[in-house]
Amino acid sequence: MLSKRLAAVAEFIPTGSRLLDVGSDHAYLPIALVQSGRIDFAVAGEVVQGPYESALTNVAQEGLDNQIRVRLANGLAALEASDGITAISICGMGGRLIAEILDKGRAQLAGVQRLILQPNNREDDLRLWLATNSFTIVAESILQENDKIYEIIVAEPGQMALTPDQTRFGVYLPQESSAIFQEKWSRELAKLDYALTQVPLEHEDQRLVLIDKISKIKEICHAS
Ligand code: SAM
């Protein structure tokens, strides 16, 4: 069974997609999607030998070798033109690493209709990459599992202009302003409040940066 996080990611994979899952580790996501009938072809790409082997073993054990190709490859190098990939998922990594993987594989993105991304941090860097590389965010989600809070960003080819607030807080998440969104930013607020107590009064520039970040969170989250 998929974790709550990967189950939430699975909801954004269009039915009938030909999926490349980058950093597939145990290949849990492609296996679940094929077994549920949502998709019938996937490539599970993994750059590290150990996780690659566990993906291979799991796919073989489930008897899915015909539908899921497991490849030892760095990022989008797992993709072959004949795969006809229409959707790419990259989950469980830092936002900067996801952006780096997409950037290195830009040439392979033609024909891809949807990116389903689940950064563990630095969502702002990932949103910026999407905006500057002709992708538009079509959906966002936020969830909590085992005390960790995760964001999911879904993008499709298109143009998007992001404000600094949208880059940092999200395009849809602030409007929805769910309890988990509020929790994420109240945790950040607590960190910044603490950081501010550690900066001596004479370091005015540093304090102003923190004060600015704190008031922005309060403004977006309507916190007092
Ligand atoms: N995607 C799974 C998930 O969300 O549960 C696994 C997440 S695991 C934390 C990250 C995986 O991505 C690791 O197995 C790691 O080896 C793999 N990885 C990191 N960089 C990669 C790259 N450039 N290409 C392919 N796989 C990569």
Automatic annotation (TrEMBL):
Entry protein name: tRNA (Adenine(22)-N(1))-methyltransferase
Signal sequence coordinates: none
InterPro entries tied to this protein: SAM-dependent_MTases_sf, TrmK
Coiled coil (UniProt feature): none
SUPFAM superfamilies tied to this protein: S-adenosyl-L-methionine-dependent methyltransferases
